[in-house]
Each structure stands twice: as structure tokens, then as C-alpha cells.
Amino acid sequence: MRAVSWRLLVTPLHTAAADGGLEWAAGAESSFGLPEEPPAARELPTVAQVLSAFREAGCHGVPWFRVAGHDLTRDLPGCPDPATCAAVGGMDLGEVSLGVDGVDDDEPVELSQAVTDIGFRKPSGSAVLAAVVALASRSGPLLVFDDSVEHVFVVSPGDEPAHLATHWPW
């Protein structure tokens, strides 16, 4: 397995396609699951849906965001064993950030707000895959790419995690 990128980014595929993302994604060194036609527009996932996906996938991490009136430790607990987590294939999402339109990085977000993108800094690749598979079932196809845009990967609802894992570059 390749070393994990410094940062992995996730955005709904329909949003990336609307911004010309399919063209630049097709030019990546490697890609998986890119459709020939852009998907139909749909609602963006909410903060609550993203947190629910993290919890369902059994992931942990360090939130680089705050949710107004909500304790994040239930949805995104800290790493139970930082000393060995990475070595044993732990479900560490690393430092997690959420992009929410109109909200500065230091402002708390609301559970009902739409998430435009998710960033994972120094994550376990298997944890990101598990979280993205769980989120895709709620939000539709997701585009995952590393900070160098060397690799791009699409996860769609119903994709088999075991099949995805055989192609997952991180």
C-alpha cells in the first residue's frame, strides 16, 4: 500500500463536475470510477450526515471544526491508542475539516448546514475509504483526491467496499 498523502479531499461528484472537475480528474496520474457523464445535481450532505457516516464507519480523528451546541466526541472521538493506531490499520481520519459555504474556519457550524467538501490531514487510507463508503450511501457519488491531484477516486452508493479496497491508492 502506498504512503498516505499529506491530505485527502472529498467532495460530492456532482459539485466537482459542475466546476469542471471531471476534466481535471481525467488528467490525473491514476483514476478509478470516473463516469463518462456527470451525475445529476442533488442536495449536499449535511454536517449531521457526515458525522453519522464517521460514527457508522467506526472512525476517529481530530475535528478541526466546531458544531454549535453539539459534543463531537460521540461522532468523532479521539484516537484510542495514538502510539499504535497507524501500525495496526486503525480507523484514524487524522485532522478533519469541513467546508461549509459562508462559514469561516473558526466559526461553529450547524448540524443542518450543507457540507461542500471534507479534508483529512494525515489520515489512515482505510479509515477514509470506510468513511466515504458510509457517506456515499447518504449523499451520492463522492470524488476523493489527494492534495497533489495525482490520484482521483469515485465512490458511489452501493459500491462494494472490498472491491474498492483493491483499487484504493491510499
Write up this protein.
There is one protein chain. The protein has helices at 13-18, 21-26, 47-56, 125-139, 161-167; strands at residues 7-12, 30-32, 60-63, 92-99, 117-121, 142-146, 151-155. It has one domain (7-167). The longest helix has 15 residues, at 125-139. The protein is α/β, with parallel strands linked by helices and 170 residues long. The protein has 5 helices and 7 strands, in the order βααβαβββαββα. The N and C termini lie close together (7 Å). Helix content is 26%, strand content 21%.
The number of helical elements comes to 5
Rg from Cα:
15 Å
User: How many β-strand stretches?
Assistant: 7
**What would you call the shape?**
globular
Which H/E pattern describes the elements?
EHHEHEEEHEEH
Strand order, biggest sheet? 2-7-6-1-5-4-3
Report the span from N to C terminus: 7 Å
Briefly note the structural class of the backbone: alpha/beta
Give the % helix.
25-40%
The number of domains? 1
Low-confidence stretches: 1-5
Q: Could you give a short account of the major beta sheet?
A: 7 strands, mixed
Strand-residue proportion: 15-25%
Mean pLDDT: 91
